[in-house]
Specification:
The complex is a heterotrimer.
Chain A (H helix, E strand, L loop, with lengths): L30 H15 L2 H4 L14 E8 L5 E2 L2 E2 H15 L2 E13 L4 H18 L3 E9 L7 E11 L15 E4 L5 H9 L6 E2 L9 H10 L4 E5 L5 H13 L2 E5 L7 H10 L13 E4 L4 H9 L8 E7 L6 E4 L5 E3 L13
Parallel strand pairs in A: 4-5, 10-13
Antiparallel strand pairs in A: 1-6, 2-3, 4-6, 7-11, 7-12, 9-11, 10-12, 13-14
Chain B lengths: L3 E12 L2 E8 L2 E6 L12 E5 L2 E5 L2 H14 L3 H16 L5
Antiparallel strand pairs in B: 1-2, 1-4, 2-3, 4-5
Chain C lengths: L9 H14 L4 E7 H9 L2 H5 L3 E8 L1 H4 L2 H12 L3 E5 L13 H6 L3 E4 L3 H10 L4 E8 L4 H14 L4 E8 L1 H10 L7 E5 H7 L5 H7 L3 E4 L3 H16 L5 E3 L11 H10 E8 L3 E10 L8 H4 L15 H5 L31 H18 L1
Parallel strand pairs in C: 1-2, 1-7, 3-4, 3-5, 5-6, 7-8, 8-9
Antiparallel strand pairs in C: 6-11, 10-11
Classes of the chains: A alpha+beta, B alpha+beta, C alpha/beta.
Chain lengths: 353, 97, 369
């Protein structure tokens, strides 16, 4: 078989294997694709469902409602302190399922690979995904790979879809927030965004900040077991940070949110990096924490439960839901003033002013 | 403009004639141009850094002195006492509600 | 962080607020010159805490807000050129030009990169010798030494694919222009602490004397701002009009002479247009003749471009303290942070964006009685 090249010149009839990086041929569905699957994906994700290599995986699903979530991961750079795009791709979808109260059951993963992507990098990404999935006991049961021309993808894009199983009595949802609810955060804020930003060229600083990417399901499972229906809302504040997540919940439930600036857990190096660039930690992305809206009577118990788990050891209460100013998030500042914490129109940008 | 933050000068070196250094901002490190403080700066000094340039060295003695004065100034005890006196006086007036 | 976070102490801040209330026998009208100071006041909700005693008018100390429309349009033109890597501080990316902003140009294929330091832009030029790297050199006297050094260094190292688009302004002429205005209400100033770190405060002494206004060189953290306001209020109560220094940990009377030396070698004073205010003579910086090679306007033939401002934006009146943002007919309706008509709504410390954030709460609370 011939491999047509982008420039259209005459090619040797045998597949020309460039030993160390992805070529367009890897996405063509032929021998190179099969080899890629066999050598790179199957050994890492191996499970009976995937090994059948059907167009779809057939899996047993007990219970009534099923949660489904999908997310695309396009982070740049692909590797950063604390993880890589693969780690995010697995944890991110597991977390989205967990935020709805579901126990993650299965994952699907689709890859868009850019021509020229080094195999070494692909290997590290897939290793991270396999490790994360195995640690969570959630198999990647089906997937897809495509290859696009150099320049059409930032190295690698990953889309993961997850299916989770819901219990009848644990259904946190954004519109369930009620005045009086305590607002808890499970851990320190701002780590992921500042870790990624530090790894980008141009803003180049070195910081003792790693991404907090983590699978939150075990922590959510503890809350379900010990606190149950008193947990009204769970949300992991990814893009847009804690501020955006709280705004979305305030609008969905038609309630006001009050935050106490002094209770926000911001690690020293995150605060320092934010000060350096003029950023507000409330808008910085996180990948390993969640906010929880909990009935006031259960708040103490919920905090205890979170703090008993390594992922929740820095959990704290950061605010409460109020009937006033529905849809708005308001922050009480250290000197006792107030300000609205609005949604930003777009990305938060470093400033010098 | 404005965004300048203090950091500790950790290391000083020369980049083809330009005095440069590594400054530590509470756990975050960055390369900073020390050209404007070159004649005085030594490792361990604190500098005010704006867009990658040290604009001045923090006067640590002055900073300590004025911060203590500030803390003392903001003590509320004297104000609380004044308020108590004022409240007591108001309570004795016939038109007090 | 040392010398920074201790100046955010809430307890000391509340004590200072009480002291300010105690010191004032009437309401005073003050202006903080620098956008970074406005940012702290808004972010910490200080305006509302002081409102009975002090009215803070947010000054034009935001280079984002005062960069003339034609400079933005020149930036957009340059960023759209295929050979150009356009570099800028993040502040400028969402400022609307006549048609769009830098983010829109990036979406259409222009190469726009945010940098933290002008030396990063110079490094990009060295890394991509077949591209033209242009740096948007915006700012007050604080940033001029950094921008001057980038040009000086490019000259020294023989980097020919680097140039800057200059939009520098200086503070004292703007303060004088404000004080000269017949309807000026400002009675005291918090001078910009980092501008004065470079320049010292000697330029403000004749202004304080001539216009009989106290000027206090102030830092940027909540305790700095509150102490600066307290010092200004005390001067006003005592009938004094001097230049005082609150920001002693950073500012000396003579400033940082080596920084000023480079600025003088690379730049010279020029007339500058301030968006929303108009032209103020000798209020800006331009590159000297011998550095004309590094002037992006010369290199790309953009001198002589002039643009008319859309009439609906009332930025000028807002910047001069004549109009409260909430009284502008377009405020919150045709002009919001998502689609701003002018720069005070774009910049996080622009007066209009500031009111949009905390002013809205009072309106809502007012309605709830």
């Amino acid at each position: 078989m011939t491999l047509a090249s982008a420039s259209g010149s005459v090619q040797c009839p045998l597949p020309h294997v460039v030993a160390d990086r992805i070529q367009l041929g890897h996405g063509s569905g032929g021998k190179l694709s099969a080899a890629l699957l066999r050598d790179y994906f199957l050994p890492r994700f191996g499970n009976p469902h995937l090994a059948r290599l059907g167009d779809a995986a057939v899996v047993p699903v007990p219970g009534d409602d099923v949660a489904v979530s999908t997310d695309s991961f396009v982070v740049s750079p692909l590797e950063f302190p604390g993880g890589n795009i693969g780690t995010l791709a697995v944890h991110g979808t597991l977390n989205d399922l967990a935020m709805m109260g579901a126990r993650p059951g299965y994952l699907a993963a689709a890859f868009v690979l850019e021509e020229g992507l080094p195999f070494g990098l692909l290997g590290r990404v897939l290793d991270a995904m396999a490790d994360a999935a195995r640690a969570a006991a959630v198999p990647i049961v089906t997937g897809d790979t495509k290859v696009v021309e150099r320049g059409k993808a930032d190295g690698l894009y990953i889309t993961t879809t997850g299916i989770g199983l819901l219990a009848p009595d644990f259904r946190p949802a954004p519109d369930r927030a009620r005045p009086g609810d305590a607002i808890l955060v499970s851990g320190p804020i701002g780590r992921h965004g500042m870790a990624v930003m530090g790894a980008r060229e141009g803003l180049g600083y070195e910081a003792e900040v790693s991404s907090d990417t983590a699978n939150l399901s075990p922590l959510v499972e503890r809350l379900r077991a010990e606190v149950g229906v008193a947990v009204h809302v769970l949300r992991d504040p990814t893009r847009g940070g804690v501020a955006s997540a709280l705004n979305e919940i305030a609008v969905a439930a038609g309630v006001g949110v009050e935050l106490d600036e002094r209770r926000l857990p911001v690690p020293g190096p995150v605060a320092a990096a934010c000060d350096l660039l003029g950023l507000d930690p409330l808008y910085v992305a996180n990948e390993g924490i969640f906010v929880a809206f909990v009935e006031p009577a259960a708040a103490g118990r919920a905090l205890r439960v979170l703090r008993e788990h390594p992922l929740g050891s820095n959990a704290d209460r950061i605010g409460q839901v109020v009937p006033q100013h529905p849809g708005l998030v308001v922050l009480r500042t250290a000197p006792g003033g107030t300000r609205i914490v609005d949604m930003l129109p777009g990305d938060q940008l470093p400033r010098i002013c | 403009m404005c965004l300048g933050i203090p950091g500790r000068v950790v290391e000083i070196h020369d980049d083809r004639g330009l005095p440069m250094g590594v400054v530590d901002f509470g756990g975050v490190r960055r390369e900073v141009c020390l050209a404007y403080v070159a004649d005085q700066v030594k490792p361990g000094d604190y500098a005010i850094v704006h867009v990658g340039f040290a604009l001045s060295l923090v006067d640590r003695a002055e900073a300590a002195r004025t911060f203590d004065a500030l803390r003392e100034l903001s003590q509320l005890d004297e104000l609380d006492w004044l308020r108590e006196v004022a409240d007591a006086a108001a309570a004795e007036r016939p038109e007090a509600s | 962080m040392k010398y920074l976070t201790e100046y955010r102490d809430g307890t000391i801040a509340r004590g200072l607020v009480a002291r300010i209330h105690q010191a004032a026998t009437r309401r005073w009208c003050l202006m903080e010159v620098c956008g970074g100071q406005t940012h702290t006041i808004v972010k910490q909700g200080l305006g509302e805490l002081l409102d009975d005693t002090v009215e803070m008018i947010h000054g034009p100390g935001c280079p984002v807000c005062v960069t003339p429309l034609e400079q933005i349009d020149k930036a957009l033109h340059l960023a759209a050129r295929p050979e150009v890597i356009f570099t800028s501080f993040g502040d400028m990316l969402r400022v609307p030009g006549s048609e769009c902003d830098l983010l829109a140009v990036r979406a259409r294929g222009g190469t726009v990169r945010v940098v933290y330091s002008p030396l990063d832009a110079l490094a990009l030029a060295q890394r991509y010798p077949d591209r033209q790297v242009v740096f948007f050199a915006v700012g007050f006297e604080t940033t001029a030494p950094a921008n001057a050094m980038a040009v000086w260094r490019a000259h020294q190292l023989g980097v020919t694919n680097f140039s800057i688009l200059v939009s520098h302004v200086t503070v004292p002429p703007a303060m004088v222009a404000l004080l000269e205005a017949p309807d000026n209400r400002v009675q005291g100033f918090l001078a910009a602490g980092h501008v004065c770190t470079v320049m010292g405060w000697t330029e403000y002494e004749p202004i304080a004397a001539k216009y009989r206004v106290p000027i206090v060189v102030t830092g940027f953290e909540p305790l700095d701002i509150l102490e600066g306001i307290l010092m200004t209020v005390r001067q006003l109560e005592e009938g004094r009009h001097e230049v005082e220094n609150q920001y002693v940990r950073s500012v000396r009377r003579e400033g940082t002479p080596p920084a000023r030396d480079i600025v003088q070698r690379v730049f010279r004073l020029v007339d500058r247009k301030w968006r929303g205010i108009g032209e103020i003579p000798m209020s800006g910086l331009g590159l000297r003749e011998e550095f004309a090679d590094f002037d992006a306007e010369v290199r790309f033939g953009l001198t002589g471009m002039s643009v008319e401002e859309a009439s609906e934006c009332r930025a000028g009146d807002v910047l001069r303290g004549r109009l409260k943002p909430m009284d502008c007919p377009a405020f919150g309706t045709r002009c919001t942070p998502e689609h701003p008509l002018g720069s005070p709504m774009v910049s996080s410390e622009g007066a209009c964006a500031a009111y949009y954030n905390y002013g809205r709460l009072r309106v809502t609370a007012g309605r709830e009685g």
